[in-house]
Amino acid sequence: MLTYEPGDSVGHRLDARSKLLLQAAFAGAAFAHTDPAGLAVLTGLALVLLALSSTTPGVVFEEYRGVLPFLAAAPAIESLRLGAPWVDPAAAVDPALAAYRTLLLLALVAAYVRTTSVRESEAAVSRLVPGKPGRLLGLGVGLVFRLLPVLQADLARTREAMAARLGGERSLRERVQIVATAGLTRAVARTDRLAVALRARCLSWNPTPPAATFARHDALALALTAALVAWALWGLRPVHAAVW
Hints:
The protein is an all-alpha fold. The protein is built from ten helices and no strands.
């Protein structure tokens, strides 16, 4: 399950704001350089960032195993044709590159979640976005990060309970219906309990954030962010053909 894992890696020591800015710059570079050469450079950078965050590619594939079939299906569907030649491999190139780009972005998201506590994420968003909108966004981020793992665990327990009762012998429609119904029921119950707990703890609209200081590692991360932004802008520059 994709949750925060305490540690002492470089990714853990970085300020959450540096990691958010680095992710945004990486995403901009990924959308500016969609060719195989650009994605190859971003792949190497993503592997380095994962290593610095104590996150292996195997962990990323395990966390997103439910998303991978959809990413793989997009190029296959795009290559199909209703007439001869029925399959056009060239049409699958762009969707395949887009799916791979999405996988790289998801890998960085996994590294961020595993190295950043919920409280640090809330404070980072509140600091980056000034005023009440920032506090509202920070609160929303905290609620999502706290509630989503619980809902995932509820769905996993529902599937395990159904399998223990020979639910695998039911049709696919019945299995989906059981899991979806149980998931929605648990989600509503969890939401109600969360609302009561927030009122009982006198949820603060403007809580005291954790201490945040930029260190040497953050300077390197911000330098890499600036380099990625410059590379993205260079990739988006208009190309004018000179005619002599």
